[in-house]
Amino acid sequence: MTDIWTRLASCRAAQEDLRITDLFASEPARAEAFCTSADDLVFDWSKTTIDSAARDLLLELARQSHVEARRDAMFAGEKINETENRAVLHTALRNLGGSVLVDGQDVMPKVRDTFARMSDFASKVRSGEFTGQGGKITDVVNIGIGGSDLGPYMATLALAPYHDGPRTHFVSNVDGADIADTLRGLNPETTLVIVASKTFTTIETMTNARTARDWMAGAVAEPAAQFVALSSAVDKTGAFGIDSSRVFGFEDWVGGRYSVWGPIGLSVMLAVGPEDFADFLAGGAAMDAHFRAAPLDSNLPVLLALTGIWHHQICGYPTRAVLPYDNRLMRLPAYLQQLEMESNGKRVAMDGSDLAMNSGPVVWGEPGTNGQHAFYQLIHQGTTPVPCEFILAARGHEEELAHHHILLAANCLAQSEALMRGRSLEEARGLMRAKGFEGAELDRQARHRVFPGNRPSTTLLIPQLTPFTLGQIIALYEHRVFVEGVILGLNSFDQWGVELGKELALQVEPLLKGDSGEGHDPSTRHLAKLFQDLRQPS
Ligand SMILES: O=P(O)(O)OC[C@H]1O[C@H](O)[C@H](O)[C@@H](O)[C@@H]1O
C-alpha cells in the first residue's frame, strides 16, 4: 500500500511542467478516453492532470484498497460501520425488490411495508382524503436538522417542476428566527408538521417541534393529529403524542446523511407524489447497479473518487468546489458538505491508528452562473488551485426560455475551458498594447490580466434534472464518498466529531443563565459574561 502512494507521489512530482492542454496534444483521443458514462450520465474528467500513467496508478490504488470487496460487503448487509457495529444499507431503501439479510433476518419486507404506508399517506394528503382540522392540507413543515433536513430540502428544490402537492417548508435551526419566519403566515388548521429525527433526541429538532405544537395548539383542538414522525426511535415518538399510524420508522443501518431515500424523504414525496419519488429511488438504484457491475476503469463513482484522491491527497489542493449550473441544485453544495465532510473528515483510520494521509477535503460551492460574479476570481487567479466539479443538464424545463439555457451552458463550458487554458503574459501584453499601454505600465497592467490556467475541473453532464437523474447524482456522490473512505482506510459512516460540541452546549447553557461557570475556560466565561451584560435592557 505504501508503495502505491509513493509511486503516485512520484508520478505527480514528474509532472512539474505539465500542462493539461499538452495532454490533449499527446493523447489525441483524450477527450473521449477520459469521458465515462453510466446510463445517460456522462462524467468528463479529461480536464485534469490525470494522465494515463496516473490513471493506471489510481486504479491500482483502488484495487489494492479492496474497493470491490468492501462495496460487496456493504450491499450484502455486513457490519462495515465498525465503530457503531452497524450495517450500511441505505441502498436497500431504493432497491425495493429482493432480500437483504442483517443478523440473519431479511430486512426488505419491512422496508417495502414502510414505503407502501408512506405512499398511501402521501396520496391521502395530496388528494385531500387526509385533512387538517380546517380542511385540505395546504402546507407541510419539515422540522429536522442535518441529514433530516438537508436531503429533503435539497431534493424538493431540485424537483420544483414536479411539485404538485402542498407547499413545503423546512425548519432546522434552533434559532427561533427560523421557525418564527416559517410559521408566520401559515394557517395551523391546514398545516401538517413533520418531525424528522433519526434519534428523536436532537435538541434543535425537539425544541422546534415543541414550539410548533404550541403554535398548533393555539388554533386546533387536537394538535397532535396534524403531526407526523419520521424516526428510528419509534418508541420515543409516542411519548411526543404522535399516533403510530403517522409514524414512519427506519432502522439504524440508515445513516442520517444517507436517509433521504426512506421516511426522511416524506416531504419530497408529499411535494412530488409517490410516483415521482419512486423514480427518484429508481435513479439511485440504477447508479447502485452500475457501481456494483462496472469494472473499476469505467465505474463512475470510482473515477469520481479517484479524481478526488488525486486532487486532494496527491496534489495537495485543500478544497474542492461543486458548481451546479442548475439553479434548482442550489442546496446541493450544502447537502454534499454534510455527505462528504461528515463522512470523510476524520483523522483516525478504521483500525484506530492515525490516518497516514490527509482526510477528506473542504467541500463548498454555489450554483453557476451566480458564483462567477462572486468567488470565481479566486478560482481563476488565487494562489491555490481549487478543483471544480461542474454539473450541467442538457435541457432545462423552461422550453420557452431555451435561450437562457444555452447561455447557462455556454458559461459552464467556458469556465472549464478558461480554467484549463488560462491567458499567458504574452496574450495579456497584446491586449494591453491594443489599449494603448506601453513600457513599464504595459507590463504592470498586463500581469494583473494573466490567468495561470492549468486548473483542473470535471464536468458531469445529465440529460435533464428529473427525479430519476437526481437519484443518479445523489447515489453517485454517496458511492464516491464511500470509495474515497475505503481508499483512505477510514469509516465513512460514523460522526463522532459532532459529539463534543453538543455535550458542551448542554453545559454552557446554565452559564448563560447566570451559573458560576466552574469548569469552563476563562475565555468562555468572559464571553458568557459579556453576552449576559449585553442582554440587559439599556
Ligand atoms: O436525525 P437526527 O437524529 O435528529 O440527527 C440529525 C443530525 O444530527 C447529528 O448531529 C449528526 O451530525 C447528523 O449526522 C444528523 O443527521
Automatic annotation (TrEMBL):
Provide the E.C. number(s) assigned to this enzyme: 5.3.1.9
Q: Please list the GO biological process terms of this entry.
A: gluconeogenesis; glucose 6-phosphate metabolic process; glycolytic process
Q: Which Pfam families match?
A: PGI
Pathway of action: Carbohydrate degradation; glycolysis; D-glyceraldehyde 3-phosphate and glycerone phosphate from D-glucose: step 2/4; Carbohydrate biosynthesis; gluconeogenesis
Where does it localize? Cytoplasm
Keyword annotations of the record:
Cytoplasm, Gluconeogenesis, Glycolysis, Isomerase
MF (Gene Ontology) = carbohydrate derivative binding; glucose-6-phosphate isomerase activity; monosaccharide binding
Naming one, the record's GO cellular component terms include: cytosol
InterPro entries assigned: G6P_Isomerase (IPR001672), G6P_Isomerase_C (IPR023096), Phosphoglucose_isomerase_CS (IPR018189), SIS_dom_sf (IPR046348), SIS_PGI_1 (IPR035476), SIS_PGI_2 (IPR035482)
Top-level division of the source organism's lineage: Bacteria
Active-site residues per Swiss-Prot or TrEMBL entry: E342 (proton donor), H373, K502
Q: Which reaction does it catalyse?
A: alpha-D-glucose 6-phosphate = beta-D-fructose 6-phosphate
Q: What does this protein do?
A: Catalyzes the reversible isomerization of glucose-6-phosphate to fructose-6-phosphate.
Question: What family is this protein classified in?
Answer: Belongs to the GPI family.
Query: What is the name attached to this protein's record?
Result: Glucose-6-phosphate isomerase
Name the source organism. Answer: Paracoccus seriniphilus
In the UniProt record, the gene name given for this protein reads pgi
